[in-house]
Amino acid sequence: MTPGPASAPASVDALQQALAEEQYIAERALAVPIYLALRLKRPLFLEGEAGVGKTEVAKALAAALHRPLIRLQCYEGLDVSHAVYEWNYPRQLLEIRLLETTPDLDRTAVARELFTETFLIKRPLLRALEENGDRPPVLLIDEIDRADEEFEGYLLEFLSDFQVTIPELGTIRASQPPVVVVTSNRTREVHDALKRRCVYSWIPYPDFEKELKIVTSKVPGASARLAREVTAFVQELRTADLYKSAGISETLDWAAALVALDREVLDSDVIEETLGLLLKNQEDIDSVRGERIQTLLARAMDLATR
Amino acid sequence: MNALVTNLLLFGRVLRAAGLQVHHGRLVDAIRALEWTGVGSRNDVREVLRALLVHRHDDLAVFDEAFDLFFRAHGSSELNLPLFSLGERARVVAKREAGVPPRVEVEDIAGGTSSAAAFAVGAYSPVEVSRTKDFGEFTAGELEAARRLLLRMPWDPGHRRTRRWERATQGPIDLRRILRRNVMRGGALVDLPRRVRRDAPRPIVVLADVSGSMDRYSRVLLYFACGLARSAGHVESFLFATRLTRVTRRVAAPGGARAVTQLVRELQDWGGGTRIGEALRTFNTTWARRVMRHGPVVLVVSDGWDRGDPALLDRELARVRRSCARLIWLNPLLGSARYEPLTRGMQTALQHVDDFLPVHNLTSVERLATHLRRLPPGRHGIHRHV
Fold it and tell me: Who's near A79: CB < 8 A, 6+ residues apart?
């Protein structure tokens, strides 16, 4: 990684340019919130359906700003010991056993020694505070909607102070706060108090032109024609009444698979064979299979040649 | 104060009138941000304000409309009229669920802390309500009495086991605390702190049929749904006839029962009988991902008269069942001794439901309450034989 400018891009255009160099296509509606989050030093809150590229924003941003990416994946029951820090119990126990052989043991010294950084396991939030220097990292808090409300409450505090208190060690503060990106699939409403502290952006499914750009830049092996047809088919598929639509990552996987199969054009047979890459739900696959593929394909061809 | 600041403050007021929560702090941010991005591009101004002043997906449409109106109106320098009428309009356009008419029923508020006794005794109201009389045969007075009872009925939806740990006297050993506690004793493990998974109230999803054939029961059953939503915590409510509508926030609000009764009339006006399969399809595609978290108990309230495609009902109900902890079908007709679930819809449904229970009188509602309370916790709760 070549060190570049550590400060935020000077303008929205510069940011768009920097992200484009990392092969992330951010339209104005996304670039402006990112830019504001950087300038205002506030967390960026990205919401949207699964697979619209929310996580990619953080990755591309870290690369564009030449900063490390620290990721915290949320889940129900996520607590301090997995998000912030934990003591390394096995090592502490081992240390006690070793110290027992020492003839004159000073108990308070033992306690002091057991709770030092040597025995501390740093989890993402703590690392995001410590690993900065002149280049604070990008902290990705992924799928916050999966965590429970208790964790949201903790996060609220963390994001306003950027400090962590460990009773045995004291308070650890960030000299420069990290760039925070929070994502949510909106499986539930995240509390307003948290969102209000953030710069908010809703990411919709990309339109044809944008998705085509993504496909051509990420799957360079696909012919121009195949890329257009693949994109058009996915666009049409998203209008169908399904439990779960295909996201961008599915489009990319599918395009890559078709390239691997040496396909230059789409036809209904190959779609049937590879449908499992686009739709991950048996009912959806069953409902699309057969005649509906023909209809969707016809409409897609229409869109692709427009 | 320059023109930009004045305009932004005004625009903030417009958004607030339209129902958005706009904080002064965010307006200050917006002013700073516009200095960086400039105000040359109308589109950029929109994106800046959108990112800073909106923090809910549902509000985006309202914001866009407000923005268009405000800045167009502003261009033609006719400030007052379109601006301040916007609040009302936007609310209608966006169909915000929170937009409940602010009519408050006095006893709804006063009875907030009512105890179990109020329901059990049933002597609260001037009219005696028979606990075994069918809801469909209630007089106006009895309906009123039933409303009071049902709106205040205390519910306990049972518990689900969460994945969060808490301290306990029994259960697995809590390693995190063990060293901290015992290290002062030289590392000998004298004291063994323990921890268990915490329980939380189990979420409930109510899907109530309000089509014509349910007419005799729908009012009372709505009171039941409102009472449940108010006391049980995590309750999501939906009504359906031919279409499905989410009424979660409306039923939980004071005066909600009346607002919902109004809504039922609107839904019935669409006519066309019940299409349970289609309603469930809408539920599964649009709502399930958001409301079926944490293994809820799903209550479908319907007589099973289905005018739609039985295959669709079969498929969608199977899917509902797979994503919940327990599927309970409540049928008011089941209260009658002569009733047999012979309709095609009911026959289909019975293959999927875990419990098939009546809701036709107060006793049956009490039995349901007991049933819910006794459901075992467990992560997805109940081990079923599929």
Answer: A150, A151, B164, B165
Residue contacts between A and B (CB atoms, under 8 Å)? 112
| Distance from C-alpha of B125 to C-alpha of B151, rounded to nearest angstrom | 13
Give the span between the Cα atoms of B225 and B232, in whole angstroms.
10
Q: Residue A29, class by beta-carbon neighbours within 10 Å (0-12 exposed, 13-18 middle, 19+ buried)?
A: middle
| A205 in Cβ contact with A245 (< 8 Å) | yes
What tens-digit pLDDT sequence spans chain B (386 residues)?
A: 578 888 888 899 989 988 888 888 889 999 999 988 888 888 889 999 999 999 888 889 899 999 988 887 554 443 333 333 443 333 333 333 333 333 333 333 333 333 333 344 333 444 567 777 888 888 888 888 888 888 888 888 778 888 888 888 888 888 777 766 766 565 566 778 888 888 888 889 999 888 877 878 888 888 888 888 888 778 888 988 878 888 887 777 777 667 777 777 777 665 557 888 889 999 998 888 888 888 889 999 988 888 888 889 999 999 899 888 889 999 888 888 788 878 888 888 888 888 898 888 888 888 888 888 888 765 444 444 44
Domain extents in chain A: 12-78+131-202, 85-117, 208-304
Pair B296, B382: CB distance under 8 Å: no
Distance from CA of B208 to the nearest CA of A (A): 22
Q: Enumerate residues 144 to 173 of chain B having a beta carbon within 8 A of any beta carbon in chain A.
A: 162-165
**Nearest CA among B116, B111, B130, B108 for reference residue B373:** B116
Distance from CA of A86 to the nearest CA of B (A): 8
CA A225 – CA A212 distance, rounded (Å) = 11
Q: What is the DSSP letter of A136?
A: P
Q: Which residues contact A76 (CB under 8 A, 6 or more apart)?
A: A146, A147, A148, B162, B163, B164, B294
**For an interface test with A, which of B52, B176, B235, B291 has the most A Cβ atoms less than 10 Å from its Cβ?**
B52
3-state class percentages of chain A: helix first, strand second, coil last, to nearest 5: 50, 10, 35
The token pair that represents A9 in the structure block: 């891009």
The closest alpha carbon to A86, from A127, A112, A120, belongs to A120
pTM tops 0.95, yes or no: no
Number of CB atoms found within 10 A of residue B92's CB: 9
Interface of A with B in 144-163 (CB under 8 A): 148, 150
Q: At what angle do helices B80-94 and B60-75 cross, to 10 degrees?
A: 160
Q: Chain B residues with CB inside 8 Å of A47's CB?
A: 57
**CATH topology classification for A12-78+131-202:** Rossmann fold (3.40.50)
